[in-house]
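Consider the tokenized backbone below.
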């Protein structure tokens, strides 16, 4: 829809700033992943996949759409219009599916920790998930767009209105919004239930069984302390050993028993000290999983906030047959792109590993600049 010159200037500045911010934020994530080898494990590969999709949203989709939005006419030809449509829907849907993939990965790390650790080194599995996200995203919109391009307008319109039927809208809305939302909610609920059960287990510890004293049984006492073992009452003792026992003074017997009791106390204290690191490790894992659960809640909230208005407006406009250049619809259209701006700040940049990698990058740049300045002086 056409605007007055002042509005066009303001909108162009805002759109350009949004595109630049998306490219910068996601470009930092990609650079950190390439530079720092410590980031190259399973969950961070999914962050990289998301950052690539969002990067091209800011690098391709928004710059091509700015003149179309401000002038109301598509002036780049039908071929570029087709390219823009395919890329836009592909990248946006891929971004959504990557959010689901990240949520699934965190669900696995919390609820199936042992199996998750064994699959960490499976690069082929990780790459398969990453490629599957792009393939599924293309299958949802790509064939329909390519088929509808044969009949669409060639000159001034590029919003694929011809295949915006109610059946197509409902099916695609279910596949790219409602199903991902349900899956992320399910992963959140499973993580919440797992954390609740673990918290209850920590608050109600199971009583540990009594450790048998090493005094019981001749073999244990003799093996550890090389002392003569007191025989059981019902055992038959040779005559020589009986004589030796009788020759022993009462003080020696009490002394040997005291040493055995001291040894048993030391063993029990040793077993308690060995259990302390296990408790600390379990507490750290619980805190880590709680952070994961909180981050998933933020992921879900941001995704619903950015995508729900667009999906609802699209369904309403299709059912009521309102014009697609409605101002509120255009606002929600840009709001889904705003999710690509939020993603790098919600996911990777909140993690210390990515922050440390970025600090290494910027510190190296500062060092190189200072060294060049010193050489020039």
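A designed sequence for it:
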């Amino acid at each position: 829809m056409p605007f007055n010159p002042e509005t066009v200037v303001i909108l162009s500045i805002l759109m350009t700033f949004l595109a630049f911010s998306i490219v910068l934020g996601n470009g930092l994530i990609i650079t950190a992943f390439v530079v720092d080898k410590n980031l190259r494990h399973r969950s961070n590969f999914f962050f990289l996949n998301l950052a690539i999709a969002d990067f091209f949203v800011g690098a391709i989709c928004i710059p091509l759409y700015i003149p179309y939005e401000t002038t109301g006419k598509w002036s780049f030809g039908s071929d570029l219009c087709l390219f823009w449509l395919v890329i836009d829907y592909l990248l946006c849907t891929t971004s959504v599916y990557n959010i689901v993939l990240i949520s699934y990965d965190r669900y696995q790390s919390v609820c199936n920790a042992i199996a998750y650790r064994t699959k960490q080194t499976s690069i082929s599995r990780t790459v398969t998930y990453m490629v599957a996200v792009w393939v599924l995203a293309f299958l949802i919109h790509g064939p329909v767009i390519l088929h509808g391009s044969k009949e669409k307008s060639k000159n001034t319109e590029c919003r694929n209105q011809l295949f915006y039927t109610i059946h197509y809208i409902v099916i695609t809305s279910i596949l790219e919004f409602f199903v991902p939302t349900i899956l992320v909610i399910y992963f959140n609920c499973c993580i919440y239930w797992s954390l609740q059960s673990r918290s209850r287990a920590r608050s109600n510890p199971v009583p540990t069984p009594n450790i048998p004293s090493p005094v019981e049984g001749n073999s244990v006492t003799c093996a550890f302390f090389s002392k003569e073992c007191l025989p059981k009452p019902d055992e038959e003792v040779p005559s020589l050993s009986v004589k030796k026992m009788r020759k022993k003074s009462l003080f020696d017997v009490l002394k040997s028993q005291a040493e055995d009791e001291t040894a048993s106390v030391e063993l029990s204290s040793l077993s308690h000290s060995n259990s302390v690191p296990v408790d600390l490790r379990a507490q750290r894992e619980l805190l880590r999983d709680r952070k994961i659960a909180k981050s998933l809640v933020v992921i879900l909230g941001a995704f619903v906030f950015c995508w729900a208005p667009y999906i609802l407006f699209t369904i309403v406009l299709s059912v009521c047959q309102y014009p697609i250049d409605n101002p509120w619809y255009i606002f929600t259209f840009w709001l889904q792109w705003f999710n690509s701006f939020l993603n790098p700040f919600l996911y990777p940049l909140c993690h210390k590993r990515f922050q440390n990698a970025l600090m290494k990058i910027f510190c190296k740049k500062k060092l190189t600049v200072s060294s060049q300045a010193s050489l020039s002086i």
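The domain at 5-203+277-368 is CATH 1.20.1070.10 (Rhopdopsin 7-helix transmembrane proteins).
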